[in-house]
């Protein structure tokens, strides 16, 4: 049996996805000592997990240092990496929306959009026929309209609490997001039996 390297996002998604693998019948220790370890070997299953920043998972998978990985649809749309999307795991569901201060219009001449998803935002407004200026930020996006940096933000909404607590309202629902199982195209061919087995076991849990 070939060894399978799986790139996993650190944090909450890791826990949910790891539990899914246990539920799918993989013989994994119930408790993993996370500490600061970035690699976990499971010799019984010939599986090796590498723990990455969520946005780096598609990078590891594209370069083939991980055969498969778990990545948010938001990251996949934004980075557009050369990976196969195998399965919607339907976990970590949220969506991308535009938001801003209530009852405000976008500046007509050069509306400014703050986001950590410049590509998603740019293609959305292009599709809408709006010419916008994108201001790329790395976090606390909700601040931008509050301090006059942008007319709108394009960001993840999960519970809606961050928008509400900062006095912002949603304007447009852009796209739904959930975690996806992705594969390196070469690994998908070379290790097809193992990967297909994993996909069909996880598929049963999703449906
Ligand atoms: C994300 C996102 C929103 C928030 C949405 O931020 O950018 O700010 O979660 O969640 P909610 O709808 O449940 O309030 P994250 O926590 O990743 O932190 P960030 O500000 O550093 O991006």
TrEMBL record:
Q: Transmembrane stretches, by residue range?
A: none
> Sorted alphabetically, which CDD domains does this protein's record hold?
PBP2_HisGs (cd13595)
- Molecular function terms from GO: ATP binding; ATP phosphoribosyltransferase activity
Under which pathway is this protein filed? Amino-acid biosynthesis; L-histidine biosynthesis; L-histidine from 5-phospho-alpha-D-ribose 1-diphosphate: step 1/9
Q: Name one Pfam family in it.
A: HisG
Q: What reaction does this catalyse?
A: 1-(5-phospho-beta-D-ribosyl)-ATP + diphosphate = 5-phospho-alpha-D-ribose 1-diphosphate + ATP
> Keywords in UniProt for this one?
Amino-acid biosynthesis, ATP-binding, Cytoplasm, Glycosyltransferase, Histidine biosynthesis, Nucleotide-binding, Transferase
> Which cell locations does it reside in?
Cytoplasm
Signal peptide interval: none
* EC number from the UniProt entry: 2.4.2.17
A GO CC term attached to the entry? cytoplasm
Protein function = Catalyzes the condensation of ATP and 5-phosphoribose 1-diphosphate to form N'-(5'-phosphoribosyl)-ATP (PR-ATP). Has a crucial role in the pathway because the rate of histidine biosynthesis seems to be controlled primarily by regulation of HisG enzymatic activity.
Family from the record: Belongs to the ATP phosphoribosyltransferase family. Short subfamily.
Q: What is this protein called?
A: ATP phosphoribosyltransferase
The organism of origin for this protein: Lysinibacillus composti
Gene from which the chain derives? hisG
């Amino acid at each position: 049996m070939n060894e399978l390297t799986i790139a996993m996002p650190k944090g909450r998604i890791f826990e949910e996805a790891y539990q899914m693998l246990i539920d799918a019948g993989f013989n994994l220790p119930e408790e993993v000592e996370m500490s600061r370890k970035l690699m976990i070997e499971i010799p019984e299953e010939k599986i090796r997990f590498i723990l990455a920043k969520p946005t780096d998972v598609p990078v590891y998978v594209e370069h083939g240092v991980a055969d498969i990985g778990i990545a948010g649809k938001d990251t996949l749309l934004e980075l557009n990496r050369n990976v196969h999307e195998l399965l919607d795991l339907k976990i970590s569901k949220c969506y991308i929306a535009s938001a801003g201060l209530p009852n405000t219009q976008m500046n007509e001449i050069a509306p400014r959009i703050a986001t950590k998803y410049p590509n998603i935002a740019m293609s959305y407004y292009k599709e809408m026929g709006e010419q916008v200026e994108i201001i790329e930020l790395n976090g606390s996006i909700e601040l931008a309209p509050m301090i006059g940096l942008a007319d709108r933000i394009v960001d993840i909404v999960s519970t809606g609490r961050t928008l509400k607590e900062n006095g912002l309202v949603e304007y447009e629902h852009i796209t739904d997001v959930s975690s996806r199982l992705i594969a390196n195209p070469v690994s998908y061919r070379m290790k097809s039996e193992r990967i297909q087995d994993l996909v069909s076991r996880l598929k049963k849990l999703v449906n």
